[in-house]
Amino acid sequence: MNKKTAIEIREEINSFIGYLATEHGLCPKISNGTLGDDYLALTIKMEQMVEVDRPQTVIKRDTKTGKASIVTLEGVPMMVPSSFLRDGAKFCIDERDFHRKLTIHGEDYLVTGINSRAKKLPVVIERVSDGEEFKTTVRMVLAARHMD
Question: How far apart are CA 54 and CA 94, in angstroms?
């Protein structure tokens, strides 16, 4: 098995498990895994989602052009991982900040997580254009909150 095949398998498992988990109010997290000569080992974690009183925001990607945009789904409640609420409280970040849009150097990002063990860069953000994850400071999120 090669790396490309392993990535494709992981993405297919992620989409399948994602569908099932959502039906039960869970959020799956699948590790990058370990690839050996004849095996692929993945770790799957399920996390409880909490419904909050605001519309759902998602990243919508055009399959033909590859362009991405942030879409608000009116009437669909936002589902927030319970760990975001628990860990965010340590940094004065709450459910209003989950999927909050940040613009950094002209690029749009969404706040997607909290790394409670990180001191300098505890906020996990996802670049809208390609889905790549980065880390940033709590100050960036609080500044974006005050701009709304």
Answer: 13
Whole-number Å distance between alpha carbons of 78 and 36: 38
H or E, element range at 113: strand 107-114
Whether residue 109 contacts residue 126, with contact meaning beta carbons closer than 8 Å, is answered with yes
Residues 96/145, Cβ–Cβ less than 8 Å: yes
Predicted confidence (pLDDT) per residue in 79-103, tens digit: 898 999 999 999 999 988 999 999 9
Q: Which two tokens stand for residue 118?
A: 């990180």
pTM equals: 0.72
| DSSP assignments along 119-142, one per residue | SS--EEEEETTT--EEEE-HHHHH
Q: For residue 5, what are the contacts with CB-CB under 8 A and spacing of at least 6?
A: none
